[in-house]
């Protein structure tokens, strides 16, 4: 990167809190980087978010080096279908408390847009809590209230499986949102929590847009029109152009995940290939409805983005793709901040 380009990128990262709407780092540190263990002949070693790791993709020190502020991280990814999900959420929450307490100079828990802006001004990481899969509410709306009280501000309706609320990509019978799921979406609206349709089936997606009185987000997906290999995913894991448009019309934002190499079935894919996915989403939905949804510590990022420290390379690739500074400030964080403020309130 030339010195001029580096100054341009750093300037953009200073003007707006850079926000990524999805990673699995809290789960990855709790259980060890099973999939990203650099020493495959040795067991995965749990790490801590306040320590700069040499495995995995994201922690507080590396995020700060990347010039990143806001990070939605998940208390739950229901990799095991039968749980225990509630216990996993509480244990992850406890671990985050420990890691935040160990490094108050590096990071804070953010539950408002103002706290994200405060973190940006202080050069800290703003951790925003999400749940990926409403298995975590165990069919009980009271748990939504408890999680909101703990600071959770975004709930993904499904991971891959069917749960009490809706159907995920691996278990799609066309049923969409259940009657209880409609109640859950309305309760999230009341609580001013973000409703996240990543991993939802198409019917779940359309039912949710019809049910929610607030903008709906998709924290991490990509553009089906460009995917060459779906691997183990169903096509509905990636948004059709029609879905990209509909989510934008509902006032939402679409996070594009950093896995272009998988979608293109190309191990050599790099940040410029990823920039093409972001450009397609922006062409279809409008640049003001697109954001970052990395899936770091859960996905497989492309060359140039081996961990979060490569984020400036992606910003450079987006400049190369022809985005204006105004569009980039939105994609890098302004769009998420706008929808967070709208849904969470003042
Ligand atoms: Zn996911």
Description:
The chain is α/β, with parallel strands linked by helices. The chain has one domain (3-344): TIM Barrel (Alpha-Beta Barrel). Helices cover 42% and strands 11% of the residues. It has 13 helices and 9 strands. It has helices at residues 3-15, 25-31, 60-65, 85-102, 113-122, 141-150, 179-191, 202-211, 241-249, 260-263, 271-285, 311-320, 325-344; strands at 19-23, 70-74, 107-109, 125-132, 152-156, 194-196, 218-221, 254-256, 290-292. The strands form 2 sheets. Strands 1, 2, 3, 4, 5 and 6 form a 6-stranded parallel sheet that branches. Helix 7 (179-191) links the parallel strand 5 and strand 6. The protein is globular and about 55 Å long. Bound molecules: zinc ion (ZN). Zinc ion (ZN) is lined by residues 132, 198-199, 220, 295, 298. Zinc ion binds at residues 132, 198-199, 220, 295, 298.
What does the radius of gyration come to? Answer: 18 Å
**CATH second-level architecture:** Alpha-Beta Barrel
Classify the helix fraction into a percent range: 40-55%
The fraction of residues in strands falls at 5-15%
How far the N terminus sits from the C terminus, by CA atoms, comes to: 39 Å
CATH C-level class is Alpha Beta
The backbone outline, from C-alpha atoms, is globular
- CATH superfamily, by name, is Metal-dependent hydrolases
